Amino acid sequence: MDAKEKKKIRLFNNLKENKPWLKLLKNDKLYCDVCQTAFRFKKDNLHKHETAAKHNKILTQRDGKQPTIHETLKPKKEKTIPFKKRAELIMTAHTVFHSNFRALDHLTELINKEFCSQGSKVAHVECKRSKGGKLLVNVLGTWCKQDLKKVLTGKKFSLLIDESTDLASKKVLAIIIRYFDEKEKKIIDALLGLQEVPIATGEKLFEALCSVMDEFNLSLDNCVSFASDGANNVSGQTNSVWSRVRDQNPQTIQVRCVCHSLALCAKKAFLHAMPTEIFDLIELIPSHFSLSHARRDKYSKLADEFIKIQANENHEALKVYSPFVKHSEIRWLSRGKVLKAIDKNWGLLQAYFDEYARNCPRDNQTKARTIQQILQKACIRQLIKFVAEIVEELDECNRLFQSVSYSKAEKANFELQQLHRRIVVRYKYAGPEPRKSREDKEIDLGLSVQAELFRIAAQSEKDAQEVKGIRKCCRGFLEALDVEISRRTASNTETFQQMKFFSPKEILLGRKTLKDMPYKDSLEGYDLSRIEREFRSLTDPLNGAQDKFKSVLDNTEQFWSRLFFYIDETDVGAPEGEESYPFRTLATFVLDRLIIAHSTASVERLFSLCNCIKTRRRNRFTTPVLEAMVRFRTYMNSRNKCCHNFDPPEEMYRLFTVDMYKKTEERRIGNEDGGISENEETEEE
Question: Quick one: how many helices (H) and strands (E) in the chain?
Answer without folding.
Answer: 31, 10
